[in-house]
Automatic annotation (TrEMBL):
GO biological process per UniProt: fructose 6-phosphate metabolic process; protein N-linked glycosylation; UDP-N-acetylglucosamine metabolic process
Catalytic reaction annotation: D-fructose 6-phosphate + L-glutamine = D-glucosamine 6-phosphate + L-glutamate
Entry protein name: Glutamine--fructose-6-phosphate aminotransferase [isomerizing]
Keyword terms, alphabetized: Aminotransferase, Cytoplasm, Glutamine amidotransferase, Repeat, Transferase
Shown stretch of the complete protein: 259 to 645 of 645
Organism lineage: Eukaryota, Sar, Alveolata, Dinophyceae, Suessiales
The keyword Phosphoprotein is annotated on this UniProt entry: no
Length: 387
């Protein structure tokens, strides 16, 4: 087991540090610059959705059927449900396709309205989560197209869906998902960009800009990790005795806040909740008092950035211990936050790939300092295959 951990104390830390490689594998062969094209031209090819001729219905590939679906319904659980929320932002903004996100466990029990022109996308690391599998079977009863975004090759969800994409994240051993999450986000971004191209909602120029930015993300995270581990360790020391923590983020960063809270809960047993920044005023604010950690993602291009800035100063006025995750070079929070983590630059829609990394490391170091069983938290299964 020590050899498998590759010199790291836990699988979770190894998997966090492995993310640049895992992301490169998720991108490989799917996003590329054609050799004979101009230097800034990029292509996206999603073999599992485009090539599946044998799966074509009325001559249309799964990708074409997705593009013209009346809506996309994404069903998932846990961390994968957070990727689904990011997918909704990406599908709607980049491709203009109406998208709904469902907890698979709720979806399957509430007799949802599904029609033949819908497309159900199941996101699952293991490919074995019972509720997600059942959601697919229900969608198939209504003859909807089913697409899987799965890490484990040959898993039940991979076999049950009409077509899909593998994450290629490599085996994830730690119960708390890290590299599978970032690779799920890569997969849904690629899908959104490909659909945007198919539907003409993204200009060629925009597509090339997004592709160039996406392909640069693994290198920038790799470089950043060299200093980020030490910075998050220092912050974790400060927070290790907390009993509650709040995470906030707006727009595409709200799911990242939820994921940050889930990670902390899962492995450190600290109660944590995620909120959209302004929504915290409608309840969560009562939890804020001296030294309660509030971790805010506040990126300059967030549509609600000014509002977020106001919320951050409100937290500080109530003596919360504020950590702000923001863009490179942003000094707006120097006077209000105890800690500012600056993220490498990228486009807004790609930022969840980056902003989630300090949150993973904070959870990891806090849990380690509390002596928790990080790779196998109490009561938690890697994959919930029971109903
Ligand atoms: C369990 C795991 C989580 C995971 C969830 C969904 O709760 O502990 O880490 O996110 O199942 O699993 P899946 O394999 O479907 O992504």
């Amino acid at each position: 087991e020590q050899i498998e951990k590759g010199g790291f104390k836990h699988f979770m830390l190894k998997e966090i540090m492995d993310q640049p490689n895992a992301m490169r594998n998720a991108l490989r062969g799917r996003i590329y610059q054609p050799v004979d094209a101009a230097p800034d031209v990029w292509e996206i090819k999603l073999g599992g959705l485009e090539k599946a001729k044998e799966r074509a219905v009325d001559g249309r590939s799964p990708l074409e059927r997705m593009a013209h679906a009346s809506r996309l319904i994404i069903a998932a659980c846990g961390t994968s449900w957070h990727s689904a929320l990011i997918a909704k932002c990406a599908f709607e903004k980049l491709a203009g396709v109406p998208t709904e996100v469902e907890y698979a466990s709720e979806f399957r029990y509430r007799k949802p309205l599904i029609c033949q022109s819908d497309c159900l996308i199941a996101i699952s690391q293991s490919g074995e989560t019972a509720d997600t599998l059942e959601a697919i079977k229900m969608a198939k009863q209504y003859k909807a197209l089913t697409i899987g975004i799965v890490n484990v090759v040959g898993s039940s969800i991979a076999r049950e869906t009409d077509a899909g994409m593998y994450l290629h994240a490599g085996p994830e051993i730690g119960v708390a998902s890290t590299k599978a999450f970032t690779c799920q986000v890569i997969a849904v971004l690629l899908m959104a960009l490909r659909l945007g191209k198919q539907l003409g909602t993204l200009s060629e120029e925009m597509l090339h800009t997004y592709c160039a930015a996406l392909s640069a993300v693994p290198d920038s995270i790799e470089e950043w990790l060299k200093s980020l581990t030490e910075q998050t360790r220092v912050i974790s020391k400060y927070f290790r005795l907390a009993t509650n923590a709040l995470f906030s983020g707006v727009g595409i960063h709200f799911p990242v806040a939820l994921e940050g809270a889930l990670k902390l809960k899962e492995i450190s047993y600290i109660h944590a909740e995620g909120f959209p920044a302004a929504e915290i005023r409608h309840g969560g604010i009562t939890l804020i008092r001296n030294f309660v950690p509030v971790i805010c993602i506040a990126m300059r291009h967030d549509p609600a950035y000014e509002q977020t800035k106001q919320v951050v100063s409100d937290f500080r006025a109530k003596d919360a211990a504020v950590v702000v995750i923001t863009d490179q070079g942003n000094r707006d929070f120097d006077q209000v936050a105890q800690f500012v983590v600056q993220c490498p630059e990228t486009k807004l829609e790609l930022q969840p790939l980056i902003s989630c990394v300090p949150l993973q490391l904070l959870s990891y170091y806090i849990a380690d300092m509390r002596g928790c069983s990080i790779d196998q938290p109490r009561n938690l299964a890697k994959s919930v295959t029971v109903e």
